[in-house]
Design goal:
- By secondary structure, this protein is mainly alpha-helical.
- The chain has one domain (7-382).
- It is 69% helix and 0% strand.
- It has helices at 7-26, 28-37, 43-70, 79-106, 113-143, 151-161, 186-201, 210-223, 227-239, 243-249, 255-267, 275-288, 300-307, 309-330, 338-364, 375-379.
- Helix 1 (7-26) packs across helix 13 (300-307) and helix 4 packs across helix 9.
Length: 386
């Protein structure tokens, strides 16, 4: 077995699913969360998010292995693991587009900016700032107190780090802080730009005007490709208004047909950029319209992982960086066998799941807008947060 073997991914993912299942059954808070989430409008979509966040964890785990061997942080020499992270992020963008465009459709294109931005800050800021504190502490410790930067550069760099992901980070403490959390905050810039534009663009949330919104999104994607995924989510939101489309999407016997293009993306050689959203969209559309992948996405474990997925996304890089660095300092991991490395990553993944459950419970959830609502019902308000 090599580090790029897909077998560890499926074994460890199954193990994390079992761990989350136990948490959802034995912990009163998450037991209540599951009971509320299963009654929510989109439980399958909520269950999907947990698999996406952990896919990014595996993506960065393999990148880290080769970074220790070569000294370069770059996509791994594995088509499967190189795709895991980008595909997961693409799905996250589509989830955001789907959820908020659905709200715009129901509201007749009228979005209240102040309410939208207040809700988004309450949903995204607490955990983001918590993770940033962790990154800064690790960076300060590794630097030994030597910043290597002017006071002004340090101040502006700190402001960028604290900007809730809206700005690109600058180096601090003489190092790229993004290396500590795997630079996952870059996606939040697109999220914030989408939220800023939504009150105006939402005026196009009708079947006829959507053509103009699509043209606008394609034009933006010409310069920055991720915008095409927000368009895919918005298109799914319009199809979700048709009962016939929902009935077809939820037919379990058609599930392999919906997943076949996604599987082809991982099996076939890399193709042009425009092919990726075409292959991802059928699976996303089916799930967004209620297909639960033969019940997998409605399991307690999947929905628990989905509830804490924002924590998993922001915290997994810090856990990987610190865990691997400590072990490497004790006994260099560049010469480890694939089995030993995956065993270590498996343990770190358990830490990620447990930490995510704790940070969601004690940092994310207290700041959710509907404090009186059940945990998972409130969590759905931020389903597109990552």
């Amino acid at each position: 077995m090599t580090v790029t073997s897909v077998l560890p991914y499926f074994i460890l993912m199954a193990g994390y699913l079992v761990l989350a299942e136990l948490i959802a059954r034995w912990n009163g808070f998450y037991r209540q969360a599951h009971e509320a989430a299963i009654q929510a409008h989109l439980p399958a979509l909520d269950g999907l998010r947990g698999f996406l966040a952990l896919a990014v964890f595996f993506h960065h785990a393999v990148i880290s292995y080769f970074a220790y061997r070569t000294g370069t942080w770059a996509p791994p020499p594995s088509h499967f693991y190189a795709l895991l992270g980008p595909v997961a992020v693409a799905f996250f963008f589509m989830i955001t587009g789907f959820l908020f465009w659905s709200k715009a459709i129901r509201a007749g294109g009228r979005v209240q900016p102040l309410r939208l931005y207040t809700n988004r800050v309450r949903r995204l800021a607490p955990l983001y700032l918590f993770s940033v504190v962790g990154v800064l502490m690790v960076g300060a410790y590794l630097s030994g107190g030597d910043t290597h930067l002017s006071l002004w550069h340090s101040f502006t760099g700190l402001v960028r780090v604290l900007a809730l992901g809206g700005l690109r980070w600058w180096p601090l403490f003489g190092m790229e802080l993004g290396r500590i959390n795997a630079s996952v905050t870059w996606t939040l810039r697109y999220e914030w730009l989408f939220y800023l534009a939504l009150p105006l663009v939402a005026l196009l949330a009708t079947p006829r005007r959507f053509v103009l919104a699509a043209v606008l999104a394609v034009g933006l994607a010409w310069f920055e490709f991720p915008w095409i995924y927000f368009l895919g989510g918005a298109a799914a939101a319009h199809l979700a208004q048709w009962p016939a489309a929902q009935r077809w999407a939820r037919r379990r016997r058609l599930t392999p047909l919906y997943l076949a293009p996604l599987a082809a993306l991982f099996v076939l050689p890399p193709g042009p950029n425009w092919l990726t959203p075409c292959l991802l969209w059928p699976a996303f559309l089916a799930i967004a319209l209620g297909n639960d992948l033969l019940g997998l996405l409605r399991t307690r474990g999947a929905m628990c992982l989905g509830t804490v997925s924002y924590s998993t996304y922001l915290m997994h890089g810090i856990v990987l960086f610190c865990g691997l660095k400590l072990v490497n300092h004790a006994c260099g991991i560049e010469g480890w066998s694939a089995g030993s490395y995956w065993l270590l990553c498996g343990v770190l993944g358990v830490v990620v799941v447990l930490l995510s459950c704790a940070t969601y419970r004690w940092i994310e959830h207290p700041f959710l807008v509907r404090k009186a609502a059940a945990p998972a019902a409130a969590a759905m308000a931020g389903a597109g947060a990552v």
